[in-house]
Amino acid sequence: MDEVELTEQQKKARRSRSVALGVVLAVLAVMFYVVTIIKVGPGIFDRPM
Amino acid sequence: MAMTNEHDAMTAPASAAVLDGDARDFFALLKPRVMSLVVFTALVGLLMAPGEIHPVIGFIAILAIAVGGGASGALNMWYDADIDLLMGRTAKRPIPAGRISSETTLAFGLFLSVFSVATLGLMVNWLSAGLLAFTIFFYAVVYTMWLKRSTPQNIVIGGAAGAFPPIIGWACVTNSISLESIALFAIVFLWTPAHFWALALFKSEDYGRAGVPMLPNVAGERTTKNQIVLYAVLTAISGVVPTLMGFAGIAYGVIAAVLGAAFIWYSIQVWRMPDGDKKMIPAKKLFGYSLLYLFAIFTALLVDALVAKFFGLVV
User: Whole-prediction pTM value?
Assistant: First the structure.
């Protein structure tokens, strides 16, 4: 198998993409959580155990 | 098989495995400046619509519309990479500059299209999601793939794609399409030709080199200037329609009339410009003013709507 050595520039670009993707995923998680609460209502916390 | 020395292993050829583009390049694929217009006009549609929407749901609606608009921009850049390379204005875009591959852009655009439409449908309503899907289809397929390279009326018909966001914003609140939202659509739709033909006049060499049949290249400068004046008049009329229909106040109507009169004045300066003028200063001024016009009209609509909504005043 050939190995591809990433250049410093490519490593920097990949890190930038990874950070952006991480932020987007975190925002999505928060967004889906908040929308679930809004759609279902705060009553979701009151259900009997 | 080629592989990188870290986790990029198992991806096919080396050229495809290594991307040079960073997050900013991916953001550039979304055409952020067009996206800002989409966000703003959609927001005005959403705030002008009668009815209530939860602020968080409203924020998500605008976000989904923005991402959908961005996705159509990415699909446009994927399809147009060949001609983008030939035009000074677009040659530095991520694909022609070699920072992001064509295949990656296509995947990015398709994924964001599906994701934004699904998000809008699940979180807001399916009418607005359907309208967003249609807008993406219209811009990427009808305008980019079909009209842009085949007719000088490309941006007249294709302009509909850029005019849909206020209708989508309105539909997010009301789950319907109404005459009022169509009036907002008409402002952007009728504004687009004068805006783009002003650009096409002073960038006609670029468009000629790329083989895009813009009106100045196909029908000549004189016809283009006549058409610019015609559309400027239609835009100015459409600007005051919200007041005539009664869903915007008199103050807005006065502002829209003044802005529209200036739009016509700038278009007449272009009409008076001698054919073959190299500097095209009036065309550049019209292009600049057209951006200001749309921003000012929608800002005035926004202020009018907010004053009416929160203070119960109709001015």
Answer: 0.89
